[in-house]
Specification:
The protein is mostly helical and 69 residues long. It has three helices and no strands.
């Protein structure tokens, strides 16, 4: 998912995407351990996606006025 697409999402949707990406990464780690994962680049791409999601989520949270939680 590109950064532009992520910026169009709400903070709740970004959090959902983040949870999904973390779960996918966990499953990939098990697949690597059992030798099932063929594309060794997928974990790296997923880690980068997680970092992108976290960055944009933090930016959105920093934009909120101080009165909002």
């Amino acid at each position: 998912m590109k950064a532009e697409e992520i910026r169009g999402l709400t903070a709740e949707k970004i959090q959902e995407q983040l949870d999904d990406a973390r779960e996918r990464l966990m499953r990939m780690r098990f697949q690597i351990a059992t030798g099932e994962l063929k594309d060794q680049n997928l974990p790296r791409q997923t880690r980068r996606e997680i970092a992108r999601l976290l960055t944009i989520l933090r930016q959105k949270q920093a934009e909120k006025p101080e009165g909002e939680a």
